[in-house]
Design a protein that fits this description.
The chain is an alpha+beta fold and 303 residues long. It contains 8 helices and 13 strands. The protein has a single domain, classed as Lipovitellin-phosvitin complex, beta-sheet shell regions, CATH 2.30.230.
Length: 303
């Protein structure tokens, strides 16, 4: 079963923005939340795939994240997110809630540091099981044995908290990425190492970040992260080793595909200075390889 590298990697890995303190820092992104606070984030998500410049598929939908601060202490925060499909989406797609249990009622409970940086998903088994159940519902019933085996190996990837965090809670990882970071109005570009979600050698990437706008109430941060060729190769080889698959099982010409692979995340955050709540997130991921391009866009808006 051949799968493009872009399709595979865009689905399983979330970048984490690096924290790069500088002497000329203007503003730190730090949480100042209170126990019992509740917020609602409206999230719209869109995925498109192109081949030779022509769009071959598109998928978009919207949902809400109901956010509650369950606990607050000197050590950090305990947060609960609950996903709900928007009423508009349910009206346009009757019966869809039963097919998408992740987006209608799934609870994600996690901790952060005292600055608000994501720390640990507490109920990762529950989250993993919900995603696997949703995937199985969407699969056709007449799969051949090789496809069934590949799917089984894919689900086995998530038998750890680290993999579940790295692949299945992208919205949370994206939203909390700036917390604990220090940002300046002067653009900075830094090479950094990223943890490998499959274990083994760390990956290299380039981070470009700056404060693009400041007012008395808000500041806006732009963060661009690009995984280089070496980082892509490490990630792909680690994935295949974890799944016990030969490289040619998902790539016809692995050397050429990996050398041409590009993955870039563009993230923009509007942050309330007094509380640290992020009120708007714009996130675009682009993955390109061998004549194919995939884009994935998120827009978070606090109600």
């Amino acid at each position: 079963m051949k799968i493009t590298v872009a399709c595979l990697l865009i689905s399983i890995y979330t970048f984490a923005c690096a924290k790069n303190p500088k002497k000329d820092v203007s503003i730190s992104c730090t949480a100042s939340w209170k126990k019992g606070e509740k917020k609602i984030l409206f999230i719209s998500r869109e995925k498109e795939e192109y081949k030779s410049g022509s769009r071959i598929s598109t998928f978009d939908f919207s949902y809400e994240a109901h956010v509650t601060v369950l606990d607050s202490s000197k050590e950090g925060y305990t947060i609960r997110w609950v996903f709900h499909l928007s009423e508009e989406f349910k009206k346009e797609n009757p019966g869809i809630a039963g097919l998408m249990p992740v987006y209608e009622g799934l609870k994600m409970i996690f901790t952060t540091t005292h600055t608000g940086s994501f720390k640990e998903l507490l109920n990762w088994q529950e989250v993993r099981d919900a995603y696997i159940a949703m995937m199985k519902v969407s699969l056709p019933k007449d799969l051949d044995d090789s496809t069934k085996a590949a799917i089984q190996r894919s689900t086995e990837l998530f038998n750890s908290r680290e993999m579940t965090e790295g692949a299945l809670i992208r919205e949370i990882q994206v939203y909390y990425a700036p917390y604990g970071g220090d940002f300046t109005t002067k653009e900075t570009k830094t090479g950094t190492s990223l943890p490998n979600p499959f274990g083994g050698e760390s990956m290299t990437s380039i981070i470009t970040q700056k404060i693009s706008e400041i007012s008395s109430r808000y500041f806006t941060v732009s963060v661009v992260q690009e995984l280089d060729t070496a980082g892509t190769t490490i990630l792909m080889n680690s994935l295949l080793k974890k799944m016990d698959l030969p490289v040619d099982s998902i790539m016809t010409d692995p050397k050429t595909m990996l050398s041409n692979f590009q993955m870039k995340d563009k993230n923009e955050y509007k942050i309330e200075r007094s509380t640290g709540w992020i009120t708007i997130v714009k996130r675009e991921r682009t993955a390109i390889t061998s004549g194919r391009k995939q884009t994935e866009n998120f827009l978070f808006t606090m109600k």
